[in-house]
Write a structure and sequence with these properties.
It is globular and about 70 Å long. The model has no long low-confidence stretch (mean pLDDT 97). It is α/β, with parallel strands linked by helices. It has eleven helices and twelve strands. A hairpin with a 2-residue loop joins strand 6 and strand 7. The chain binds ligand PBG.
Length: 325
Amino acid sequence: MIQRPRRLRTNSVLRGMVRETRMSKASLIYPAFVVEREDFQEEIPSMPGQYRYGLNQLLAKMESLLSQGVDKVMLFGIPDKKDEQGSGAYAGDGVVQKAMRAIKARFPELYLIGDVCMCEYTSHGHCGILDGGYVNNDKTLESLAKTALSQVEAGADMVAPSDMMDGRVAAIRALLDANGHGTTPIMSYAVKYASGFYGPFRDAAGSAPAFGDRKSYQMDYHNLREGIKEALLDVAEGADLLMVKPAMAYGDVIAAVKAATNLPLAAYSVSGEYSMVKTCAKLGYIDETALLCEIATAAFRAGADIYLTYFAPELAQAMDEGRIG
Ligand code: PBG
């Protein structure tokens, strides 16, 4: 026998050398939820180990992330009051804006990314302004752009629109540029599917639509080529980074978008992916660390350069220990 592939698997030093997929803590982004309280911390029932944080607890969490080598955070706000228009999304003293100011004042080295969407702020839970039962695309663009600007003014280093309205990247770019923020990058949730995997997040953020679903704006998961179309449109509109979401069941999409574009590509391992692993581990059916490492590696192997995950601290630790990367 001339070919013995097992030769390269003989021991862990050799296996470590011939790994095809390399990851680093620099690629990780941790999503966090903030509420309008000073002192508050509440575990999210559908996401064991994840919390809704008041400002002080959020700051403590940021400190602990930094100490673990995770220095990028995507912030989601949970406002006390919601309205038809979702005006809390762009309030100067909104929940996310206040939290961003506090984080930047305390930890300027932390890279802050604002999720730009209306669904946490609208009374109906849809990602934009309603016209009858339908989300009006062009009216929503103005709110999204204002939201992005208010986050940047509050200290966001990057904005990430997740609403799936057509033309939002161009609208956000234009308003940021007009206000002197030409160097702030936009990471577009370019290829975002209407997914059952978001269930725990909507529970966490209280953002489930009051009627209907998000299928008239988020993508149909039967479609791959449409994902390329969305990605290319966002490139043309001036996106700086692209995202595919969810991640775990969408490796083919990650690979295809990577091949079709030349922007840095993020994959978002969403709430349902986290909760499935957590719950099975709690029941003793699987080994949590083994699974979270394997699932993350799959996203990078598919082509992701950046990975958003509620398991960012655990992954950072696994990398420190040499289990992956
Ligand atoms: C806001 C938004 C959602 C997620 C990220 N941004 C919810 C949704 O689209 O319904 C989901 C994140 C997750 O499930 O972890 N539009």
